[in-house]
Predict the structure of Signal peptidase I.
Amino acid sequence: MFGMSWDFALILFVLLVVTGLVWCLDYFVLRARRRARAQAAMVNADYGLAGVDAQEAARLRQEAYDRANSTPWFIEYCVSFFPVILFVFVLRSFVIEPFRIPSGSMLPTLQNGDLILVNKFQYGIRLPIIDKKIISIGTPSRGDVMVFRYPVDPSVDYIKRVVGLPGDVVLYQNKTLSINGHEVAHVRAGDYFEPDRSAYVGRYTEQLGTVEHSILLNKEAPQDFMPISDYPYRNNCEYFSNGVRCTVPPKHYFMMGDNRDNSLDSRYWGFVPDQNIVGRAFFIWMNFSEPSRIGRFH
């Protein structure tokens, strides 16, 4: 789960509109008026320069011009910051957006404190703020690590792995994942110390589609599955004591965390609609506690 980045996007958009309007007003209207006012001020200054030597007269004329041509501080700040705000807005809206991992639900792939980059255009170009897709480029693939707006509270961003695509039948039972009747094998790869629980859990290697990645599983720990809310397409899922079976609706995705016993995901709150997609996470650009983690991940 991430913080509420939607609020920041809205604030950035408002700043972009305000500074953009001021920039346009200044460029197309106010600059010409200031120049005309400055030219008139310089001409008026000539009337009081009789008997003044040429060098001093030139200095006084320039001072009169500069005073009349000065830009109010508010307009100057808006004009200066508009290109910067425009660049940041376009970059984070259509190209790449940074996020910080605040929990351990994606261990061992991502850990608390990882600063990651998210590709915003791989799944299509969307209008910022309203998040409406206007150009379809691609769709999520099974195994992608995806950032999306939490269906229960769209103001919050979540990150999980794509497990089920539209039309898939996903079964998670007795700590084993099956997709469309085929069990997804996982191979033991040692132990992993989970900070949230201060205990070692089993680390396994799993492959979803073309993506090989690690997951955490405690085979001995009990796990009950109950929905936390009456989510859309609730009838597509069947819950039982040791698992859940869901048929993924059209234009929706079934998401799971790599920390299988410590992740609040589609097993509990349902499916992620296409309109909630933010982008594909692909790179750790910094972890101040562990800089060696910088790099791509799967």
Summary: Helices lie at 5-46, 54-68, 73-95, 266-269.
